[in-house]
Amino acid sequence: MKRWYGLLMLLFTASVVADPGDVQRFPALGAPTAQLRIHGSTDIEVFATVIADYQRLHPGTEIVYEDIITQDMYARYLRDRNGPASPDMLISSGMDLQAKLVNDGHALPHRSAQTDALPAWAQWRHEAFGISYEPVAMVYNTRTLPASRVPHTRRQLLELLRAPDAPLLGRVGTYDVQRSSVGYLLATQDGQRGSMAGALLGALGDNRVQLEERTGVLLDRVSSGQLSLVYNVLGSYAQARIDAGAPLGIIEPEDYTLVMLRTAVIPRGGKHPDEARRFLDYLLSPRGQQVLSREARLMPILPAAGQRRGASPERSYRPIQLGPGLLVYLDGLKRRQFLDAWRGSMQQGR
Question: Is residue 140 classed as helix, strand or coil in its secondary structure?
Answer without folding.
Answer: strand
